């Protein structure tokens, strides 16, 4: 499934592809592929698992993780330290009670709930920032082939502007 949600101005936000994976091996293969080709920069991984295999934990994406504790989410969510983790933590402090609430204007309501459900079921959520627009088809094509679940597009403006809430 592929969808898109634009938040704020197309030029002021970063464009991300969000993909969901079942297992560490598939995720690790995708990370190696993206790193080798340098077509896109994975910026965050989110998961609610306690077991991280050593070969995956050595990845730069998993070296520094932040834990997020949402009131109405039964597990702790680990998120790569960085802008996304900071933005989610800000929304958590601002009253977001669920992970889906924290995604409220970055993704559509149904997509946010689907991502939350994937995390609850132990799936792995990868966020990849698209740089030049010509990377789009290459990155999305690889993620759609590797991810048995959803691949979603969204624009995230990490700097709050008039009318945008973070």
Q: How would you characterize the overall build of this protein?
A:
Helix 1 packs antiparallel against helix 6 (136-146). Strand 4 and strand 5 form a beta hairpin. The protein has a seven-stranded mixed beta sheet with strand order 1-7-2-6-3-5-4, with helices on both faces. Helix content is 34%, strand content 24%. It is built from six helices and seven strands.
Query: Helical segment tally?
Result: 6
Secondary structural class: alpha+beta
**Helix-residue proportion:** 25-40%
Number of domains: 1
Q: What's a quick, concise take on this entry?
A:
The protein has 166 residues and is an alpha+beta fold. The protein is 34% helix and 24% strand. The chain has six helices and seven strands.
Which features characterize this protein?
single chain; 166 residues; alpha+beta; 7-stranded mixed β-sheet; 7 strands; globular; disordered N terminus; disordered C terminus
Helices and strands in order, then pairings?
Layout: E1 2-5, E2 14-21, H1 24-37, E3 41-47, H2 54-57, E4 65-68, E5 77-80, H3 83-93, H4 99-102, H5 109-120, E6 124-130, H6 136-146, E7 151-156
Parallel strand pairs: 1-7
Antiparallel strand pairs: 2-6, 2-7, 3-5, 3-6, 4-5
Helix pairs in contact: 1-6
């Amino acid at each position: 499934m592929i969808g898109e949600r634009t938040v704020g101005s197309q030029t002021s936000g970063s464009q991300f592809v969000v993909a969901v994976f079942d297992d560490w091996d598939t995720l690790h293969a995708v990370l190696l592929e993206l790193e080798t080709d340098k077509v896109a920069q994975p910026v965050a991984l989110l998961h609610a698992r306690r077991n991280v295999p050593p070969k995956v934990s050595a990845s730069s994406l998993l070296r520094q993780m932040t834990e997020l504790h949402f009131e109405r989410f039964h597990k702790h969510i680990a998120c790569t330290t960085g802008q996304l983790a900071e933005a989610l933590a800000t929304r958590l402090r601002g009253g977001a009670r669920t992970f889906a609430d924290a995604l409220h204007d970055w993704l559509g309501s149904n997509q946010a709930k689907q991502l939350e459900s994937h995390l609850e079921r132990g799936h792995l959520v990868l966020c990849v920032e698209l740089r030049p627009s010509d990377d789009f088809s290459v990155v999305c094509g690889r993620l759609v082939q590797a991810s048995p679940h959803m691949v979603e597009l969204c624009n995230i403006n990490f700097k709050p502007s008039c009318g945008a809430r973070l």
